[in-house]
Amino acid sequence: MQKMIEFRHVRKAYGEKVILEDFNLCVEKGEFVTIIGSSGCGKTTVLKMINGLLEPDGGEILIEGENIREKDQTMLRRNIGYAIQGSVLFPHMTVEQNIAYVPNLLNSRDKKKTREAVSRWMGIVGLRVQWGVSRTCLNKAALLRENDTLKAQRAFAKGLIQENQTGLLMEARFFYAEREWTGKR
């Protein structure tokens, strides 16, 4: 298998507080990884280091075998979908418009490609119109109420749907949670 993301002996501290010490991780092409841990354990730090928002204090991070310090940071970030907790969503837009925001920027001349991407990604992240409301409600923001789960799914889809991107976007996906989900509420 091809290594997509690799952390080698990474160290990161904020002042005196060491967040990661000798952290090693290898994510292979097509692998699905979940990062679970308590608040402050380094989940967000790991994600921010993958897309170059933070630099490690020691060790190295490789994306497709290349050290991220040697990569063009703008191109690195364009090729990684990243939806943060509490992601900014546009409340005046419909679900589809929010998800289509990035593809519209990337595919401004190809509306059909954007519509196909939105439909595909909504299915992948499990966005469905609930409670028997017809799909047309997705085009009317006032008719669609969302719970926190739906908002999180929408933000995640928005982060992933950069259709022009290859490599990490389609090959390795990172998820993290504050606590383990048991399926019970």
TrEMBL record:
Sequence ranges assigned to domain ABC transporter in this UniProt record: 5-183
Keyword Kinase tagged: no
Pfam family, one: ABC_tran
Residues annotated as transmembrane: none
One of the record's GO molecular function terms: ATP hydrolysis activity
Keywords: ATP-binding, Nucleotide-binding, Transport
Family: Belongs to the ABC transporter superfamily.
Name of the protein: ATP-binding cassette domain-containing protein
The species this protein was found in: Candidatus Mediterraneibacter stercoravium
